[in-house]
Amino acid sequence: FIVPDHTLAPAPRPNGGAVGGPASALAVALSAARAAAANVLRPPAATASTAPRLLHAPAATFGLLENLSVPKLAFFPSMNFDGFLKLLPGAHKSEGPELAFGHLTAEQVDAENKQLIDKVFSLLNDSNWKVIAQPSSKMTISKRYLESDVSFGGGDTDRAHKFAVVKATATLRATPEAVYELFLDNSRVHEYNEFCRRVSDIEFLHSKRPHSTKITWAGSARIAGVFKPRDFVTRVHFATLKDGTKAVVNRPEVHPRAKPTDDYVRAEILLAGNFIRPVQGHPELSEVTSVTYVNPGGIADTKVGAAVVNAICAKGPIKFFTGLENAANKPKK
């Protein structure tokens, strides 16, 4: 996947604001998390790997604790559950990098966007990916791990590097335009992402390409009926590359109008991206490459939780691509 050049055309303004990459990252990460939850909550069974079997009791226990959304636990009147989680070995609650609101020029925003795209393509073209699943001849899912000092524009990489980066490529029976339009329309997110329940565009940043870069907050549904909903804040950039590829790339942010609350566990998307391009000779098809690097937060942000999420990370892209293809082929209302 080599696309060395950058934006040539302005990205269209999203209809109500697009969630694009964040929504896909949420779908991939939480699909894996839900699969992990199902794995740890069912009775142990003989498997090739012993790691999931060892985690049944703690994951189920803390999953039930995450389900308690009251501000104070009755038996710990002076401690809420977020405080309790911080006492666990390896548990952490990150609020991400600060953004210099009001002090970013168009040139600075564009320079940071270019740097982010460069880093993403460098990652995609790296040779250290390990194929972990090929659900069909038209879909390949790979993963790799990064060192703790690898950053895509912020975020707590010291905590995140225990999670795998997931790359997935699929050929969809849908035109690139139809797929890209899904990412540009908030009202259609539910058609391909069952987890993304609330989305809010907080601020559009100054850029030479109006409305191509913004800050977005999104919140998920409860995971597997047990784990608390997740929310996250990202900077989203839309770009059309020299070869016609449509790109939606994301990095973590914080914003004074989207502070962490007790209603959600704050997740952190260190990187999310979707790249959509036509298949030569087949205008009815599109090739979509998705890359996600996510710390789901909460009980997942431990060695035990990360081991479960990483073991089942191939499940998320399958459901995401299936939903994307189905939604892209729905008649417009």
Give a verbal description of the structure.
The chain has ten helices and ten strands. By secondary structure, the chain is α+β, with helices and mostly antiparallel strands. Strands 1, 2, 3, 4, 5, 6, 7, 8, 9 and 10 form a ten-stranded mixed β-sheet that branches. The longest helix is centred in the first third of the chain and has 22 residues, at 20-41. The chain has helices at 20-41, 51-54, 56-66, 81-86, 106-124, 157-160, 176-183, 189-192, 303-311, 315-328, and strands spanning 130-136, 139-144, 165-172, 196-204, 213-220, 230-240, 246-252, 265-266, 268-279, 282-295. The model is unreliable at 6-19, 39-65 and 68-100 (pLDDT under 50). Helix 1 packs across helix 3 (56-66), helix 1 crosses helix 9 (303-311) and helix 1 (20-41) packs across helix 10. The radius of gyration is 19 Å and the shape is globular. Strand 6 (230-240) and strand 7 (246-252) form a beta hairpin.
| Number of distinct helices | 10
How would you describe the shape? globular
Helix/strand structural class = alpha+beta
Q: Give the termini separation.
A: 35 Å
Average residue pLDDT: 77
- Count of extended strands: 10
Order of helices and strands: HHHHHEEHEHHEEEEEEEHH
Question: How would a textbook summarize the main sheet?
Answer: 10 strands, mixed
Helix share, percent: 25-40%
